[in-house]
Write a structure and sequence with these properties.
Length: about 240
């Protein structure tokens, strides 16, 4: 069952609450302040569902703190993890535009804070600031590319390659020598498309080669370049 989260008073952060959010990058500070003033701050505990598949697509969620997994659930109850979203990412833009039910579920991986913008308020904003649609279209394009890449990965990569590529994606754009990823083996299995046992074997192999090590629910990557090579990705 999805949770609405704890609602706090409006006005948290003003225009600064939306700084860095690509969807609102074209707005001036005054417009961002207006948007932030009508958005509802929500807080979700670790493990709490933000929404589930087929829920009404009634709001856009802008993440301010924490991390959220986006997943689909099969009739058997098995999960397929689609992505992990962190600030300043957004959730729910697809349902928000077409008015259809949620196409996936979202769960807080850690304590999470978000701003909820209702569909009616968002559409009013789009009418007043059509440039927002450019960012929305870029978001849709990124979604289609990610889904296309995931489909190709299941055809062309073995499991270890998919695990390596998933870790590289989760690490994001960083040049840090060590990258800590807050994701356990079960969640990684859901994302890479394998059993937990096979994921553990792949991680064990990577650990033996000195590419990473695990710390409870965390995976600490120590050689991101090696993982990129194992995933067949171009080096940077």
């Amino acid at each position: 069952m999805s949770g609405a989260g704890v609602v706090t008073p409006h006005g948290e952060g003003g225009a600064d609450a939306l700084v860095g959010v690509e969807m609102f990058a074209g707005l001036d500070a005054e417009a961002r302040t207006r948007v932030a003033s009508i958005a509802v701050p929500r807080h979700f505990r670790r493990g709490q569902l933000l929404f589930v598949e087929d829920d009404p697509g009634e709001s856009l969620l802008v993440l301010r703190r924490g991390a959220v997994s986006v997943f689909r659930t099969a009739a058997s109850g098995e999960r397929a993890l689609l992505s992990v979203v962190r600030p300043p990412g957004v959730l729910g833009e697809v349902s928000l535009l077409d008015g259809a039910p949620r196409s996936a579920s979202a769960e807080a991986l850690e304590d999470t804070t978000a701003l909820a913008l209702s569909r009616s308020a968002f559409l009013d904003l789009v009418h007043a600031h059509p440039r927002i649609l450019d960012a929305v279209m870029r978001s849709f394009g990124a979604l289609v590319r990610r889904l296309t890449d995931q489909t190709a990965d299941h055809v062309f990569l073995d499991l270890a390659g998919r695990v390596a590529k998933t870790l590289v994606r989760l690490a994001g754009d960083t040049t840090a020598p060590l990258v800590t990823i807050e994701l356990n083996q079960t969640q990684l299995a859901e994302m890479a498309g394998g059993s937990r046992q096979s994921i553990n074997q792949a991680l064990g192999t990577f650990a033996q080669r000195g590419w990473l090590h695990t710390e409870g629910r965390r995976i600490v990557v120590t050689d991101l370049a090696a993982l990129r090579r194992r995933a067949g990705m171009s080096s940077r």
